[in-house]
Amino acid sequence: RSEKNWWHSATVYQIYPRSFFDSNGDGIGDLRGITLHLDYLKKLGIGLIWLSPIFKSPMDDNGYDISDYQDIAAEFGTLRDFEELLEEARKRDIGILLDLVVNHTSDEHPWFMEARKSEDNPFRNFYIWRDPDQDGGPPNSLQSSFGGPAWSYEPATGQYYFHQFSRRQPDLNWDNPEVRCEIYNMMNWWLDKGIAGFRMDVIDRIAKEVDSEITADGPRLHEYLQEMHRETLAERNVLTVGEAWSATPGSALLYCGEDRNELSMVFQFEHVTQQWDQLYGKWRSKPFDLVALKSVLGKWQHALANDGWNSLFWGNHDLPRVVSNYGDTAGYHRESATMLATALHLLKGTPFIYQGEEIGMTNAVFQRIEQYRDVETLNMHRLHIEAGLSVEEFIAGANRNSRDNARTPMQWNSAPHGGFTTGTPWIESNPNYPQINVNQNLRDDRSIWNHYRRLIALRKSEPVIVYGTYQGYFDQHPNLYVYTRTLGTRRVVIIANFTAESVTFTVPNELRGRGRCLISNYENIKELESGVTMRPFEAFAVLQQI
Ligand code: TEU
Ligand code: CA
């Protein structure tokens, strides 16, 4: 980690600790469960782990509601367990990114417990309070991301407090310099322990101006991020990735431009939201549209081609499983999962793998609302049913896009609950664990896991994959994603069939010729002739000298 942009050739693996591995049989994944599997991750080849929140929390939002930033949730372990994990990871050259959740705290954070007591409490101004409107209702119509008003009434003082997520996640007031100072001290405390950086939760939402109804991308956002950089990150060679649903190709460079001194990169979600309904969002998503997807991916490749840096991801703990969302889990599970990995990992940027993606885990198959655990899904269920949606319709939407799809336990082997726990898991395992699990993947050289391992290794051995210039072809083709990456005299041609149909196409003159196949999910191809037939979900990359 001594070189400046050491993370350019690394691949990050996201762990959702609650669902990764339970080491003590209480049904909840924990830190020791992660430490026990570091060799597994080392074999895969990843350079960094992003740990979803591990801090003390009442778990209203599975840890995205923190009640003590400098302690570990008891169900996950202790600070000692964390230090052991950090040390064991370091021995294997794996860095740890912590999840920095500082847009809000838990309502059980001591700051909020104080703040809610009285208007003159010293912590009052750590949060955002407003008087009711004339009718006693919320001060304005801002809505929470999890449904319902973004304001909750606090009877003790007769005011409302602001929360962009659940009512148990009050928003911090970043305009208060004391708040910022506390956060920077806390960040330095973790950085001094030797973590490799932070993933920053909803970082685009910290600088809100609630009276003007501005929540994302507020006017002081970049001032705060530059201050944060000065106070914590400068002089440390760490990686930071900010979650920014509002980021556009234009605004992204403000976060991650080389001379900005803010973040290394952002997660942007345009490829995710282009699939959602204008009105109902993800609860009613549109059919898959490859042309639209390619256009978004290409746009971002160009936008950050010469400055800034892209993050590359298909999924995370908030999104459906990639193979369920864009692939074919029935007939072409292995082919589509490996095709999707190929298409993403050979783009320019830093790839993020969400736990279980490397073995092709699929969406949950819940039939009843009682099987869901996610606060967002449960809130939305209540609101949509009140608004007249049928239970069947809601469950159909949730089956596609509920956040719980990605949160079922990691499938290690064919033992009960996929070997995740010897107890009862906090959320039901996907019943397909006898077929889809780590053991079965490790045994088979052609498995999804081995394909991911090869992609991760390629990024480390081929500079053209890290730095090559991107160019897309056949933008309007409804089945194929074709692009090249070029660096000096080396060019990689990537061709991926996103459909279950066989597709024959004419290779453009300039791309024809012999080469070395870097990776393929059928058999290796040595030459791009004038016509190429792509089988269902076939994908390969050919390295050519030009
Ligand atoms: O997510 C932010 C966020 O906007 C999503 O939860 C979004 O609302 C949802 O996926 C779209 O319907 C981050 C975390 O990743 C998420 O897990 C947390 O719940 C949220 O912030 C609050 O901390
Ligand atoms: Ca446990």
Automatic annotation (TrEMBL):
Tell me the domain of life: Bacteria
Under Gene Ontology molecular function, one entry of this record is:
alpha-amylase activity
Query: Which keywords does UniProt give here?
Result: Glycosidase, Hydrolase
Give the matching CDD domains.
Answer: AmyAc_SI_OligoGlu_DGase
A single Pfam family, by name? Alpha-amylase
Would I find Hydrolase among this entry's keywords?
Answer: yes
List the InterPro entries. GH, GH13_cat_dom, Glyco_hydro_b, O16G_dom_2
- GO biological process annotation, one example: oligosaccharide catabolic process
Question: Per the similarity annotation, which family is this?
Answer: Belongs to the glycosyl hydrolase 13 family.
Could you identify this protein by its name?
Answer: Glucan 1,6-alpha-glucosidase
